[in-house]
Amino acid sequence: MDITISKAEYSFSIHATEDFDKNLEALANLIPEELIQETELVVEELVGGYDNPIEYVTITFSKQKLVNKILDHLISQMSAEQKSQLYGEFEERFNQNKKSFHLRIDKQGIYNNELILSSATNVIKIEIRLRSYVKDVNFKQFLVDRGLLFKD
Fold first, then answer.
1. Does a structural domain hold residue 55?
2. Span 58-75, mean pLDDT?
3. How far apart are CA 117 and CA 108, in angstroms?
4. Could you say which of 40, 93, 114, 151 has the lowest number of CB atoms within 10 Å?
5. Where are the beta strands (DSSP E) in 71-149?
6. Which burial class, exposed, middle or buried, applies to 101 when counting CB atoms under 10 A from its CB (0-12, 13-18, 19+)?
7. Is the pLDDT of residue 92 over 90?
């Protein structure tokens, strides 16, 4: 195959008014249970407005086997309507320079184990990095074939 998925990265911020553990429980709804033990968090301490502390959490999966399991799990949680929405928004969500596709999942929804695509700020950002060793490949069609995007 000309295209592979090289990395999946989750990132989100936890504000001083939010519970750190509750955010991690919500995140666990987006990661296959068997991979939770292999999840390595990187937490960066930031300062927000009014000097409020913010923790910025990043989780990166780069082993091919893990990345495929992550993507399969994410795809299994999405409806055909959401996949169709992503198909229509491909150009806005795909960074051609980085070869990455971005999703934003509503944190409040995922607390309730409900995957909701969002453009708000209180989200878990998911970046899916793709790699190709040949020119002129169709990344959109690859994601359709992979099941993340759905063309009506």
1. yes
2. 93
3. 11
4. 40
5. 94-95, 100-106, 123-132
6. buried
7. yes
